[in-house]
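Predict fold of ClpA/ClpB-like protein; 163 aa.
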Amino acid sequence: MSSDAKDVRTILVRGAREVARRDGSRTVEAEHVLVALAAMEGNPAARLLADAGLTEDAIRAALDREWEQSLAIAGIAVRVGLLPQATPDHSRDPQIGESVRLLLKRALDADPKVGGTRIGSVRILVGILDTERGRVARALDGAGVDRVALRARAAEALAQGVH
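Predicted 3D structure, encoded as tokens:
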């Protein structure tokens, strides 16, 4: 399977790594990739997300609610909006986390007959949506997003040659 290095670099290194850095994270995880995809105006994955009501702000709000709910299960009551903002450390270089490795594996495992072998934003979105577990799945479920339908639309876009 080949990749379009420019797409992958733009999404993961420039986009998601910057999102992780702004969030004060030491690792780039799937949620950072999802936010980065939504923020890439004019990008096919961003359009698919927007059509599902998932703008950058909507995704961040869903992730905040998921975090609050996860902490509540552990008996910790917190409101994200009342916490101090993260202080981005621009000297920090967040490393690729396990959830990104898994989403890339799922993207690579997606049927190459559907949309060729290019690893662009839509194939990365398919990799993000190809899981039933994890923070992104919980956040999207909590926001009422039909992940299965969104994944089907992304796969259809791949089949039509949209990357």
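The chain is about 60% helix and 0% strand.
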